[in-house]
Amino acid sequence: MILYRISPLHPLAGYPGPLLWRITKFAPAWYGAKGKHHLQLKKLHERYGPIVRIGPNELSIVDKDMIPFILGNQGMPKGTLWEGRRILRSKNYNVNNSMVAVRDLDRHAQLRKPWNKAFGTGPLKDYEEMLTLRAGLLVDRLESHCKTDRDPFGRVDLAKWFSFFSFDFMGDIAFASDFSHLQDGDVHGFIKNMEDAHFLPTIVQHIPWAAKVTRATPFIGSKLQKFGGFALQQAKKRAEKKMLHKDLFYHLIQATDPDLAANPLPLIMANTILTIIAGSDTTASGLTSLFFFLLRNPECHKRLQHEIDEVARLDPSLSPDKLAQVPYLNAVVNETLRLHPPVASSVQRAPKIGSGGKMLGSMFLPEGTCVTLPPYVYHRDPRYFSPNPDTFWPERWLKNADESDEESVLERAAFIPFAAGPANCAGKPLAMMELRYVTALLLRNLDIAFDDGFDASSWEDTLTDRLVLCKGPLGVKFTKRALKL
């Protein structure tokens, strides 16, 4: 088998890649365990070029012209990675009813329609009310540190507080539950259990044949089982609750089939894991990265705060609709998502089973082969983002399309923080609304800086590539601002 995988007879023999990776997927699994898979892929592409063989039957492609053939309307279904990522056991989890895990394009299209409606203009207005209340509580709780501490500054781990906020907000919009993290902290370990559950799928996604064994093994799979049990519990509670407001699952049920309201548990259970992780962890990581970059670049921080103050003078409520039109705020959000995309590496597709293969432009991808498009690598490729592709520079997003600047490159087609095509992130409109509103509210109400002794130069080393890009602690100090209207 090893000789075949490295021989000229293998269908991927013509693509370069490190010898060990061509032989076995245990090599990328090792970097997955370390949480540095995204960094290693970047190194491999810098060494081997835009197409790299990263497994016996897998390629990593960084070429914007390939994106439509892989992720577009005529693209491919998800690859085997998703079998290894699954957290719940088969008896609790019908893959064919889960939008994030289903590997049939027609079935995915059926499942996706209700999600598109659930994040339409009308439902977003319902979520907006919950967002303003929960974000207001976040500001109040942070301001309380200034009022009670003898130190003139409030001092917190802002990453932790963003996790508290996003998890509580996820409870608001999906489960009609107040998890009360902003009031009590993670006393029940809900957030810790979720973060712990990321570890094993990060490894097993590279060797999906081992997934059933690892999930069933008590010691190895205990953290998955613990988080999976929590998710099932929330699904059952939500299915039994009478509706007090129109939340995410209300809109999903109405868009799928209103008759499901009599027995919504199967639909809720199939989408609970996706809702918890995508609805909390990704937003918390995005907000943490955004404030890290602002505090690391004081001139950007000052410019954005001034812009928010100008908006607040005309619209003291900082309505999300108005914030969506604020140029520099959107530039800062885009630049954050460029440098730290929520899913850093594991966007994988594969030819449909039974198809024989797929033409990617002039390139043929045989059936049984997977292809990965790593957003982290795309977003730092100098062909698509220059100058200084590894540098936080929001101004790159403010250039008009008709401006001629030979030294500056901004290739929006290569910007895929929410993936692309029909299987992109359904919750993108809500995520963008959260990022803008929470950022604006904190900048309007607080003056924030790195805490004394915080080592900003090494903070990015704490980031790990799990199911999402996970954050490290972000120590800050802050004071309450005197609002001038």
UniProtKB/TrEMBL annotation:
Keyword hit for Lyase: no
One Pfam family, short name: p450
InterPro entries: Cyt_P450 (IPR001128), Cyt_P450_E_grp-I (IPR002401), Cyt_P450_sf (IPR036396), Cytochrome_P450_monoxygenase (IPR050121)
Domain of life: Eukaryota
Keyword tags: Heme, Iron, Metal-binding, Monooxygenase, Oxidoreductase
Entry's Gene Ontology molecular function annotations: heme binding; iron ion binding; monooxygenase activity; oxidoreductase activity, acting on paired donors, with incorporation or reduction of molecular oxygen
Known cofactor(s): heme
Name assigned to this protein: High nitrogen upregulated cytochrome P450 monooxygenase 2
Organism (species): Coprinopsis marcescibilis
